[in-house]
Amino acid sequence: MFVKILFVIVALVVILVIVVALRPADFHYHRSTTIAAPPAVVFAQVNELQKWGGWDPWAKKDPNCKTTFEGPPAGVGAAMSWAGNNDVGEGKMTLMASRPSEFLQFKLEFVKPFVGTNTAEFSFKPEGNQTVVTWSMFGKNNFMSKAVGLFMDCEKMVGDDFDKGLTDLKSISETKTKN
Question: pTM here?
Fold first, then answer.
């Protein structure tokens, strides 16, 4: 009887490993919003990392998060490191590409709760007197990320945070435009 139970457990583990291994390696999450402000106003809120505290959804999850800045205050080479609670984790993001009022690209290096390196991008497209902002993140799932993805909807989790951040970015940018 013990051998049969052990065989069933091993078979289930093997099936689980196969299912996890066959999950997609690449992921891509994105959200967009339209902001009643010119691209330059919105771009400035994202390009200068010290302004992220006003709209970054993870800053609100841990008001006691330790944040440090390196390099220039804005543009390529600007970097921000953080160490916070379990909701925020620990990591660093570095601005790798900056085309004024058009595009930003960040390298994201996560240390906790999971180790990983991803890319985040923001695009700013003028549409009349408004700006369509798209925030995206993409990268590769390792085996553990694939396994977590079986039980958690990571796209929804990240997407919901992106939506919150974009809502706050919209509010700040539209207020700046009115003033």
Answer: 0.85
